[in-house]
Amino acid sequence: MGNKQHGSSVDRRSFLTYSGGAIGASVLLTGYLSQDDDNDTDDVPEETLETALLVPSLEFTFFARMEESFEDAQEELNVEGTFYDNRNDESTQASNFEDAVLGDPDFIMVSPITSEGIVPSIELANDEDIPVVTIDRDAEDGETATYVASDNVDLGYRSTSLCLEFMQEQEEQDTYQIVELQGTPGASVALERNEGFQEAVDEHDELEELDSQTGEFTTEDALTVTEDFITAHGDDIDGVFAQNDLMALGAQRALEAGGMDDVPITGIDGTDEWVEQIIERDHYGTIAQLPEEMVFTAVEMGRRAVEGEDLEEFYPIEGLEVTQENAEEYLEDVDVADEGEEDE
Fold first, then answer.
1. Residue 22 pLDDT class (50, 70, 90 cuts)
2. DSSP code, position 274
3. Which residues does residue 212 pair with via DSSP β-bridges, in sequence order?
4. Which among 105, 261, 303, 340 could bridge 50 via Cys, Cβ 3.0 to 4.6 Å?
5. CA atoms within 13 A of residue 339's CA, in its CB half-sphere
6. What are the tens digits of pLDDT across the range 98-137?
7. CA nearest 97: which of 73, 132, 137?
8. How far is C-alpha 199 from the geometric centre of its chain's CA atoms?
9. How far apart, in whole angstroms, are the C-alpha atoms of residue 268 and residue 320?
10. What is the 3-state secondary structure (H, E, C) of 306-324?
11. What percent of the chain shows pLDDT beyond 90?
């Protein structure tokens, strides 16, 4: 990965031009599909397919947005299916996946809690010849039709690099020391975002990793871990990279309580609560994901798998850099698309 060309920042205005003005069903199935002349994405498929979508937990806004998009996809892409909230529990995930398989769907979409824990479930689907599309998080083993997600290595790299930009804008120094809040241990998304973080540290000579601990993708855990960072390192902390926005909020609360609210923080996801903080502060940022596009793409890939098409191993969904300059516009756009939906 060392020679990889990371995606450049996508400003909000260029995305609005690309998407037609809203993050929602109307923007989806562009990008990769526009390059395939054999597909007319304006036509709703005639055959109704049965499917299921399983996500780690609806406590994360990111997955709540997936649920809403799954409902839209059922109307617009002619699928019917069941949505499962696995409550961040691997035994619940296994039980729900088994229920989905027993329903004999045409294909299953799943965002695994961990890349290892989902393997027996995928093998169960393999035994029944049910195609599986992993979405946002991948599986370590088992046969899957494809994987639809953001390039999480790139998201980690870009968010860390954005944090460095904020630190450099604040003060010129020879070195900048950054701490990382990692997600759920063993989750592919956490491993990949850490890889991107490490690439950014390796590429920028002036950037040094001060500490890295798991915040479990939650605000409360991230607050506690950041308090520990402050106790251990104090003013040596120049910036915080959080692997998701919920942990960025936890870091913010700990730093403000410690009188260190000038420390830059960057996250990943684009959730409302964190973007609202970005509007107020020029040293906060995030790389927003598009769960809506992930769901629509995964549904289309599932249909293609059922039809016997050969698929790529990975269909990437590009992220959007959100800073104080475009945060308000971003929120307005999300509100239009979601029409009151709640927010990972």
1. very low
2. H
3. 180
4. 105
5. 5
6. 999 999 999 999 999 999 999 999 999 999 999 999 999 9
7. 132
8. 19
9. 10
10. HCCCCCCCEEECCCEEECC
11. 80
- The residues, ordered by sequence, that sit 6+ positions from 3 with a Cβ below 8 Å of its Cβ are none
Predicted pLDDT at 20: 33
What is residue 328's three-state secondary structure? helix
Q: Is 176 helix (H, G, I), strand (E, B) or coil?
A: strand
Q: What is the DSSP letter of 9?
A: P
Q: Which of 123, 117, 79, 124 is nearest to 98 (CA)?
A: 124
Cβ atoms of 93 and 112 closer than 8 Å: yes
Q: Which two tokens stand for residue 214?
A: 């798991």
Global pTM value: 0.73
Tokens of 120: 């027996």
Q: 169: how many CB neighbours lie within 10 A of its CB? A: 11
The H helix count followed by the E strand count for the chain is 11, 12
Cα dist from 166 to 227, 238, 257, whole Å: 21, 10, 21
Tokens standing for residue 344 = 């990972």
pLDDT of 158 above 60: yes
Residue written as token pair 């997955």: 63
Instruction: Give me the residue label for tokens 């965002």.
Output: 111
Burial of 104 (0-12, 13-18, 19+ CB in 10 A): exposed
Q: Hey, what amino acid is at 94?
A: A
Give me the amino acid identity at 164.
L
**Residues 154, 159, 160, 162: is their CA dihedral positive or negative?**
positive
CA distances from 24 to 221, 304, 308 (A): 31, 22, 28
